[in-house]
Amino acid sequence: MTETNKQAQKKEAELGKGVETTRATPLYTPTVDIIEHKEDIVLFADMPGVDEKSVDITLDKDQLTVYGKVEPDVPEKHRLVISEYGVGDYKRTFTVSNEIDRDRIEASVKNGVLKLVLPKAESAKTRKIPVTGNA
């Protein structure tokens, strides 16, 4: 298997010792791209099979948790014979610093891609300091 193929495969989430899930479905860690702009940080998480009704995002103290629930899609009066693509839920947790304005965080999902916009707090934004010739 090539290195590219290894990277494209889903990664099962690592649960802590003694931690178990309440659903009998695999739990995956979604792959994420994080882009920093001047005004905000934008996070894109690949979560195939989720929509706005099946994603739960919580912010508890400094922990931002993303959870996406996916149900297998088997047409009525059919049965699944072979599945080469793992279907399961998604979960990932991030630590949010004080540089983020927690009250203005926004989330949207389209075509299985979750977009989180984390606006920077005013105190964390880069600003230009004017320089004068008087010392």
Task: Describe the protein in words.
The structure is a single chain. The protein starts with a helix and ends in a 16-residue tail after the last strand. The chain is built from one helix and nine strands; from the N terminus they run αβββββββββ. The chain has one domain: Sandwich (Immunoglobulin-like), CATH 2.60.40. The mean pLDDT is 84. The strands form two sheets. Strands 1-2-7-6-5 form a five-stranded mixed β-sheet, with no helix packed on it. Strands 3-4-9-8 form a four-stranded antiparallel β-sheet, with no helix packed on it. With 135 residues, the protein is mostly beta strands. A hairpin with a 2-residue loop joins β8 and β9. The longest helix has 6 residues.
Short note summarizing the structure:
By secondary structure, the chain is mainly β.
